[in-house]
Specification:
The chain is an alpha+beta fold. The chain is built from seven helices and 19 strands. The chain has three domains: about 60 residues, Structural Genomics Hypothetical 15.5 Kd Protein In mrcA-pckA Intergenic Region, Chain A; about 90 residues, Pseudouridine synthase I, catalytic domain, N-terminal subdomain (Alpha-Beta Plaits, 2-Layer Sandwich), CATH 3.30.70.580; about 80 residues, Alpha-Beta Plaits.
Length: about 240
């Protein structure tokens, strides 16, 4: 194992991310949990490097660095979850891409079960980290429709930022479509942030729909459909790399 710790090769978590296992952070967790072997030996330490001569396995499956990187924008319908499996047997968003690609893809960030709209799928762990990391400052825009009127005081409080059960929630901007429908822009986007905020104000959400991530808009992608990101779009996100480190 000593040869893996010299200056040659790349870090194990980066190799795994390039193999489509997940983001580098997720791969670091999998390594620490003992799911990865290098040349038949379980590795849990940080900083291990591997080369093309090494045999890397994850849960018994041999990994190969993926050469073709794929970047997709998917229009997630309601009643689908963003996960690789579900003990309750609910529909998986990844299944909308099943059989379309020869490599393992995974979602970048999440939309909850009832929410709809734009979500990315990729096999590039570095891209996933950049898009998901709060320090990248990438805007996510949502269309929110409620059953009750949304007062401007409520939105101003969300713009200023509020604490809910020890978590700070804040939007970057808002605009009205109707008294019951608003556009919200977030730069961080914590888990179920919009739903938790509106619930704290006793407002029931009828529809939560993501329409933009960074420079990519949902546009005319049909529900359940997808398109490839353009090279220009991919590079726009990758240029945020330094901020996300």
């Amino acid at each position: 194992m000593d040869k893996n710790n010299n200056g040659n090769g790349i870090r194990l978590q980066l190799f795994m991310a390039r193999s489509g296992v997940g983001s580098r952070r997720k791969c670091e967790e999998l390594i620490a949990e003992g799911f990865v072997k290098v040349n038949g030996e379980t590795v849990t330490a940080r900083g291990v490097k591997v080369t093309d001569d090494d045999v890397i396995t994850y849960r018994g499956r041999t990994l190969h660095a993926t050469r073709k990187l794929i970047y997709l924008a998917l229009h997630k319908p309601s009643l689908y979850i963003c996960s690789n499996s579900d003990p309750e047997g609910r529909n998986l968003a990844i299944d909308l891409l099943k059989g379309e690609f020869p490599v393992r893809l995974y979602n970048v960030g999440r939309l909850d079960y009832l929410s709809t709209g734009l979500i990315f799928f990729t096999n590039d762990g570095n891209f996933a980290k950049i898009v998901s990391h709060p320090s990248s400052g990438i805007e996510k825009e949502y269309l929110v429709e409620t059953k009750q009127e949304i007062s401007e005081d409520i939105l101003k409080s969300f713009l200023k930022g509020i604490w809910i059960e020890g978590v700070f929630y804040k939007i970057s901007s808002y605009s009205y479509k109707t008294p019951y429908k608003v556009k919200l822009v977030l730069k961080e986007g914590k888990n179920r942030e919009i739903r938790r905020f509106f619930q704290s104000r006793n407002l029931k959400i009828k529809k939560l729909h993501r329409i933009r991530i960074g420079i990519v808009s949902l546009g005319t992608i049909p529900q359940g459909g997808y398109r490839f990101l353009t090279e220009k779009e991919v590079q726009w996100f990758l240029k945020k790399r330094k901020k996300a480190k």
